[in-house]
Amino acid sequence: MEDPDPYLLDFLPQTLAVFLPLSPSLALGLGILLLLLLFSALVSAAETAYFSLSPLHVEAMGQDDSARSRRVAQLLKHPRKLLATILISNTLAKVSVIILATFLTLRYTLPGPGPYLLFLGEVVAVTALILFFGEVMPKIYASQRAPGIARMMSLPLLLLQRAFGPLGSILIHSTDLVDERYARKGHNLSMSELSEAIDITSTDAGAEEDRRILKGIVKFSDMDVKEIMKSRVDVSAVDTSLNFRELLKFILDAGYSRIPAWEESFDRVVGILYIKDLLPHLGEDEHFAWQKLLRPAFFVPEGKPINELLTEFQERKIHMAIVVDEYGGTSGIVTLEDIIEEIVGEISDEFDLESEGLRYRQVSDNSWIFEGKASLNDFCKVAGIEDRIFERVKGESDTLAGLILELEGRIPPRNAVIRYEQFTFRIEEADPRRIHSIRVTIDPEED
After folding, report:
1. Is 218 exposed, middle or buried (0-12, 13-18, 19+ CB in 10 A)?
2. Any alpha helices (H) in 260-301, and if so which ranges?
3. Which of 76-85, 227-236, 370-379 has the lowest mean pLDDT?
């Protein structure tokens, strides 16, 4: 038999001399370290479990009469207080692990390694322990068994919530102060940025309709009544001086279910006539006082956001508003259908089918003939371009004809050509007072 190494015989007694007298305290320290890691793991698992519970799980626990489910429901009533308790508990556990690991390392490490090497080893070892056993593994496990973990940790969390109540309140109030101070200084995405984000993330060719609706919702809160209203020159309104037979003929020619009524001029709208209110009186003679059937008109300014107008339409249970300018004159009308079309697109009925072709006609893949009164918003939808491209030059205009007036500063004659970036506008029909139709061509290379 080979004799043992004399160096080993000298080293073992020295090592045992260091550890044997202190082994109970070392074992106690390692035991506390493991308990702290276990506590951190349980708290991390509870955080993932509570904040990943689905509404169905929460509803099921609300209907369960068990003590654990009641405690879970009690904790979820105050999510910020629950989160503060979890954060305080987890932070204390992790800090305790670091401090205790440092103490044990300094107290029981064999002589030899330099201080820097010892520090590096301690950082790597403690970080790996906390991340793997205190964060990653517990959260992966809890994400798959959220209801069970939530019930299991309900009592410990309630006890911790009571223990750290004052500290948790301080934490919640301090975050409230920070929120109030910096809430308005957060990063606000512009409408164009949100629209571009939708284009980037929506890559499925089959989701084109969904993408179009999402973009409509994004732009919805950034649009005013003036951008979607029907101009006064295109509004069918009835004079209150007409007799009943003349009124019926006007209604048949107009084809609308609601018609504004005016006295003296369209700038003095006195009410809205609902055609359904006339049905019981169709047998009356021409002297019937139909003016008594008028309902009150609802007036809105040109600059009113359409999302606010939609809310008022819902509250008042009406479908039409009279748009007035800053001087009180009538600019036009806006309907519930006009607002909804900004989200879902054009809504066509039997009357729209006949008139829709008069608004624009596609000549080629990149050329259209539009009426001058067509809105810039509608033109951009038809051409498939972003409406912000005209922001710099459109001024206060909202129609194609208005854009031409802003670009030229005058009413151009027929066949005049105006160019702006990749767009070529050719005046198809005009008179000294109005541009009637415009041919728009988009250069495909620049586009």
Report:
1. buried
2. none
3. 370-379
